[in-house]
Amino acid sequence: MRSALKSAFGPRLYITVAVAIVLGAAVGFVFPSFGASLAPIGTGFIQLIQMLIAPVVFCTIVTGIAGAGKLTSVGRIGVKALVYFELMTTVALAIGLVVMNLLKPGAGIHAKASELKLSEAAQGYVSTGQHQNWYDFILNIIPKSFVGAFTDGNVLQVLLIAVLFAVALKMLGAKGEPVVAAVGRINDAIFGIIKLIMYLAPLGAFGAMAYTTGKFGISTLVSLGSIVVLFWVVGILFCLLAFGAMARICGLRVLPVYRYFKDEILITLGTSNYEAVMPQLMRKLEGVGCPKPIVGLVVPSGYAFNGDGVCLYLGFASLYIAQAFDINLSIWQQIALLAVFMLTSKGSAGVAGAGFVILAATLSSTGAVPVVGIMLLLGIDRFLSTMRGLISLAGQMMGSLVVSVWEQQLDRPRALRIMRGHEAPLVQAPLPAAATASPAADSRQGDAAPVPAAH
Question: How many CB atoms lie within 10 A of CB 218?
């Protein structure tokens, strides 16, 4: 019995999470009211992880940059990451527009703007969007105080502070080495907390899925089922083909990548929140050989600049609303929308309901499509947001791998062996599986020492 529990919450955690998702969906369908009342369980699990994101980002970046070589490499890594982000988000936007032009799922609805009225929730998204400027995300990177960045949980603000702090330590030379070592030990302790929290992953996935199915149910899906199914199908194909092509270019294979990160994929599927898996995502990327400075820069910045799922959604949603209102946008109008989305999508970090806020802000500013049309998608946004998160998570997985290959700092054959489970990860992943190791083995393991495979 004990060994079965260790396996269920250790190397086979993904199976336990998958079972919890199915049970949560069943409870939500059979007992809708009870399922909807379980929202605090899923929310609580997400908040437990999110409270550790800021210190994880800070410690990872400080130890990575301060322990790295020349500081010029940091700027080079940042530029390469931004090039990758811009490329993939542009591809996602373009694919969304192309698919909607070809299939036209909104044609035939014949909606009228005069017959729609913004609900209180939708009005909140519109109000937020109208007060968003293209430069806001740049100003929001600068925190009001050093501590404020951590209390507010703004990842980009923590990223800025961590980079400046790491550079200052690097300039101190030998005097800064004790501080770097202390930050490294704090990082180890934080990941120890994450290991404990990850035992609750099945419970969090169960509560979140029960809430989703209990609150929205089948009736919501039936009315707009075509757009939900289409978005999920295209999202899956995007993850397989677009990221698959990028993986091939880098000498990798995308399916082993997804296999290696199956725990994170299932947790995102259950909770509809891919930010909750950031800490273990960073550690597992280091586990396949991605250098800590690259992971520390690419992953946190990717949560703001690499919203592939949001970009694919924006192309879908804007044209769906236009088609529903019988508005025929010219190719130039669509290109103009794409250009605006390329700017506004970069400011989504830390914004609740980011996809809806960006959509509302862009439609309000362009005037090409009535902003009240977001009401056509409000009821199913929860189901669309799950796929948005999965696509963006896939983009996060690939980001550090691509930049590591670009920097010629990834042993690709070894990384593939690790992803396929043929070799132990280089760095311990923050999963409950680590608890199955003996105390003696734990005492012998260092940050860079090979550990028993968690998958």
Answer: 9
pLDDT over 90 for what percent of the chain? 15
* Confidence (pLDDT) at 306: 78
Residue 134 DSSP one-character state: T
Between CA 433 and CA 437 the distance in angstroms is: 8
Return d(Cα 237, Cα 219) in angstroms, integer. 26
- CA-CA distance, 328 to 151, in Å (whole number)? 46
- Backbone φ, ψ for residue 97 (5° rounding): -65, -40
Mean pLDDT of all residues belonging to the chain: 77
Torsion 351-54-45-390 (CA) sign: positive
Task: Taking the CA atoms of 288, 292, 296 and 298 in sequence, report the sign of the dihedral they define.
Answer: negative
Region label for 273, one of left (φ > 0), alpha (ψ between -120 and 50) or beta (otherwise):
beta
Q: Give the DSSP letter string of 222-282.
A: HHTHHHHHHHHHHHHHIIIIIHHHHHHHTT--HHHHHHHTHHHHHHHHHHS-GGGGHHHHH
- Of the pLDDT bands very low, low, confident and very high (cuts 50, 70, 90), residue 68 is low
141 SS3 class: coil
pLDDT tens digits along 269-287: 887 777 778 888 888 999 9
Residue type, 216: F
For residue 177, the SS3 value is helix
The string of pLDDT tens digits covering residues 432-451 is: 543 433 333 333 333 333 33
Per-residue DSSP letter, 308: H
**What does the alpha-carbon distance between residue 310 and residue 355 come to, in Å, rounded to a whole number?**
6
CA 394: distance to chain centroid?
8
Distance from C-alpha of 352 to C-alpha of 66, rounded to nearest angstrom? 33
DSSP-derived secondary structure for 30-97: HSHHHHHTTHHHHHHHHHHHHHHHHHHHHHHHHHHHHTSS-THHHHHHHHHHHHHHHHHHHHHHHHHH
Q: State which amino acid sits at residue 165.
A: F
Identity at 204, one-letter amino acid code: G
Q: How confident is the model at residue 17 (pLDDT cuts 50, 70, 90)?
A: confident
Enter the tokens of residue 438: 């003996």
Cβ neighbour number for residue 72 with a 10 Å cutoff: 8
Phi-psi region of 140 (alpha: psi -120 to 50; beta: other; left: phi over 0): alpha
